[in-house]
């Protein structure tokens, strides 16, 4: 039994190889993430006599290249939750040094103690890996878009208060929105009130035609009437115009990236076998569906429904001692926060749409009628949704495998 403990970090990994009886084959040493260094490590691991298992923490995205390289070389690799390693004690000392060398030794000892229970790392295929990466980028640009939107609204409060509420048209496929295009042209309240009503209406009509928006003379009059009552803090000059235009450009760039990723994620997700089943589930659309598949990955890697709910961190906790049994226990929240966020968005969509006869919505509505708090019935709904997801997707994938076998 050769236990290889790897503490992965950016650019390098610290490796320790141990055998039962505290026999150290390779003391802790740093391995750079270069082709020559990794090939040398693979050669050393393959030269060992007996069965070899490699273990590492699945922290962030740093572990994936190392896990992929070793798996492709035909080496058994297991990735474990960092919480399990942190809670594991490999000796009786009350000292707990936190160094890369100490961590790699601890992981190697953990590998020996959990030898029979270690699960082999299942490498995600290229599509799933790209989809997950795109989803993380999507979240990043969504945060940027929200920040840029708030920044623009704050500037408009100084130049054209409330202009962002003139239109509620949804974003176009290129990410542009009517109210954003409007404030780019009419960046100051004087851009409207400096004209007569007829002159503004005519100018607004031409602007709508040029931008491809619907025109309404009643809307033009409403904007003009509201604008006459507004007070701008900043003067109408080139500096103010530059500031507003810069904010609009930044928001449009973030919006364009968001919509581009949204379309590309749906295109990539459509290549996965479970796509038609997932997209037919209530609450899931062209945005949340790909996000859900990106964060769950291959559902076949989960042994049972409880494994998937635990991965998401929406599994109910337990607290029992003697005859005492706590009825309501917080969920673990030790799984994927990105998956939980997507699940809550799906639950929110179900509550807004209230689809008749949907098992998940009916379950949440029942909990809500019982007076359960918001997070309680939302988490319970997410748990039930994942169990249904697991059953439907796994059954469909197994049927595909059976048809291919025949």
From TrEMBL:
It comes from the Bacteria. It comes from Butyrivibrio fibrisolvens. One of its GO terms (molecular function) is DNA binding. It holds the Pfam family Transposase_20. NCBIfam families: transpos_IS110. GO terms for biological process: DNA transposition. The lineage of its organism: Bacteria, Bacillati, Bacillota, Clostridia, Lachnospirales. This is Transposase IS116/IS110/IS902 family protein. Residues 4-161 form the Transposase IS110-like N-terminal domain. Residues 277-361 form the Transposase IS116/IS110/IS902 C-terminal domain.
